[in-house]
Design goal:
Pfam families: Cytochrom_C. Keywords: Electron transport, Heme, Iron, Metal-binding, Signal, Transport. InterPro entries: Cyt_c-like_dom (IPR009056), Cyt_c-like_dom_sf (IPR036909), Cyt_c_1A/1B (IPR002327). The protein is mainly α. It has a single domain, classed as Cytochrome Bc1 Complex, Chain D, domain 2. It has six helices and no strands. Helix 2 packs across helix 6 and helix 4 crosses helix 6. The termini are far apart.
Length: 130
């Protein structure tokens, strides 16, 4: 009897943990609005011609500094980073702290929720590599 009573409790706890994890994910629609501050330099489409920053299309899962049509800083080329949600979060929080000497003239996004929203937007609208 006691064992069967514990199973639903364990199941409820596990489901609650999954729900909490999903709830803490970013909001792509809010991220699209926040991307306005990035759009002066970056595009989420393959075509970023005329912009000072590289395209962010397919950025999640892509090694840093790998697009052939963009001149990356030596620091970013040497970084060894692959753009995961975690590495993007750290980089967006403090670009110079994560890759000292990168050329991106941006001090970072201090708000963790805004970074999460931006990353959700990139994952949804910039897509993932095929």
């Amino acid at each position: 009897m006691m064992r069967s009573a514990r199973l639903p409790l364990a199941l409820a706890a596990a489901l609650g943990a999954v729900g909490a994890s999903s709830a803490s994910a970013g909001d792509a629609d809010r991220g699209k609005l926040a991307f306005g501050r990035c759009a002066a330099c970056h595009a989420v489409s393959q075509d970023a011609a005329g912009l000072p920053g590289p395209s962010l299309a397919g950025v999640i899962g892509r090694p840093a500094a790998q697009l052939p049509d963009f001149r990356y800083s030596p620091a970013l080329k040497r970084s060894g980073l692959t753009w995961t949600e975690d590495s993007l979060d750290r980089f967006l929080a403090n670009p110079q702290g994560v890759v000292r000497g990168n050329r991106m003239p941006f001090s970072g996004v201090s708000d963790a929720a805004e970074r999460s929203d931006l990353i959700a937007y990139l994952a949804r609208d910039a897509g993932r590599p095929q």
